[in-house]
Amino acid sequence: MAHPVQSEAEVLSRSTEGGYHRLVLRAPEAAPRVRPGHFATLAVGGPNSALLLRRAFSIHRADVEAGTVELVIAERGEGTRELARARPGDRLDLIAPLGTPFPLPDGPVSALLVADGYGGAPLFGLGEEIRRRGGQVGFILGAATADRLFGVEQARALTQDVLVVTEDGSAGLQGRVTDPLAQAVKAIDATVVHACGPMPMLREVSAIALGLGARCHTSVEEAMACGVGICMTCVLPVVGEDGVSRFVRSCTDGPVFDGARVRWDDIGTVPPDLEGAAAMGVRS
Which letter, b or e, does each residue of 63-92 get, where b requires 16 or more Cβ atoms within 10 Å of its Cβ? Predict the structure, then answer.
């Protein structure tokens, strides 16, 4: 679990990459606490706004020396549109870091990092850390169209093993990000796969990776109302280490989960064998 701090973070810069916006925020207390896979939340609209809920974003990078935290934002509604128009000098209410990050290896490993769209934001810092520990990485970066890709050049700066996939064929291979996954795992002899993206993609990535004998760690893109474990809106059915299935919170127990333990087929339901299901009126 992270040790988050709340601060008034100054916007140092805003830039665009494809269809996304990159915000660099001055957050010297938060930056040293960030690990790959952590996320942050930002308040939107000001104290008198009807936009009550904070917006959650994966942390792209944290620079301890500079005291900065970098977020990647896609415009999806009124709140994210406001953040995408932030200007240098603006101050934003930031809580970071939050959640459970990707597990880091004790030594050298061969890892495949898989992302859809800006889901790849936390994977580049992870790739750098794996390389620092003597390991090697490969990337599969996918999106619906070329303008929805993120981080291709960052990936190529880390490794020559980069596959780009778009559904319409406007960049790289045509297809889904999972299409070349099995071949890529074998090509770099990956023993672990790290992935971030929509639930259907993570489900398929997990199935393919586990079927090939690789471990799989998935960062879920689940809607979060509070981000700190209070509201229970982001729960997923997950099998615990004791073999018992429970609802766990994506914001505190995740967003990174062992792909072998998430009950992907049961997301959005209350399985009858789930601990506490009987109290919810669910019968087997």
Answer: eeeebbbbbbbbeeeebbebbbebeeeeeb
Cα dihedral sign for 117, 118, 123, 127? positive
Tokens 């859809």 appear where? 116
Among 200, 221, 242, the domain-final residue is 221
Do 211 and 232 lie in one domain? The reply is no
Q: How far is CA 188 from CA 76, 116, 144, 163, 174, in A?
A: 36, 20, 25, 12, 21
CA-CA distance, 248 to 238, in Å (whole number)? 7
CA dihedral 44, 222, 150, 147 (to 10 degrees): -80
3-state secondary structure of 102: coil
Radius of gyration of the chain (CA): 19
| Mean pLDDT (10-residue bins), the chain, 284 residues | 89 93 97 96 75 87 97 90 93 96 95 95 96 97 96 96 98 97 98 96 98 97 86 93 95 96 95 82 61
Whether the CB-CB separation of 142 and 165 falls below 8 Å is answered with yes
